[in-house]
Amino acid sequence: MTPDRAFFAAFLDLRDRLALVVGGGRVGEAKVRTLLRSGARVRVVAPVLCEGLQQLGRDGEVEHRAHRFEPADMEGASVAIAATDDADANAAVASAARERGIAVNVADDPSLSTFIMPAVVDRGPIQVAISTGGASPVLAKRLAALVEAAVPEEFARLAAFAAGYREAVKQRFGDVAARRDFWERVLDGDIARLVLAGREDEARALIEAELAPPRPFPPAA
Length: 221
What we know:
With about 220 residues, the protein is of the alpha/beta class. Helix content is about 45%, strand content about 15%.
C-alpha cells in the first residue's frame, strides 16, 4: 500500500522561531533536541517531563508549561509537534494547529500531519533527509544508515571550506556557468582531496591561487 499523498520536500528556517512540542516523554525529547539543533525556541507542554527534558528546562533551553495541552499554548508558534501517547490529545493539537494555519506534525500519524519529519543524515552544513511519506519510518531510518555510512564526517569540513569561498568565487567569476565549472573542478580535484584529508592549509593555498586575478600580459617590446 502506498501513501495516499505526496509530501513536498523542503527545509525550514526555524532560527529564533517558536516551536511547540506537546508531550514530555522520550519521543518528545527527540523532537525537542532536533528543533534546538535547528535554532528554534522551544515550548514544551506536558504535565510531567522525562529526565532529559527536565535537564533542558533546568538549563534554560526550553520553556515548560506543566499542564495538559490547551489551544492557547499555540500562541506565537510557527510549528507544532504532538508527541504524546494519547490519541485524543494528539488530535486536539492537530486540530488547533490547522485552525490557526500552523504547520503540525503528529508523531507516527501522517494522516493528522501537515508536515513529516524525515530520517536525517547530519554532516554539519550537509543534511540528507530521507522520507517514505509516512509509509515506513523504520525503512527510512535504515536507508539513512546506508547514506550515513557512505558520507563520511569529513564532508562537513569540505562543505564549510566551500562556504568560506562562495563570495570570493562570485567576485572572481561573474558568469553562473563559470562558477559552476569552477566548483566542479574544485570538488573533483586536489583541493577537495586535501580538505578531506585534513590538509586545509594546502587546500587554501591552491584555491586562492585559482582565484587570483589573471596576470596582464607584459607590454610588447
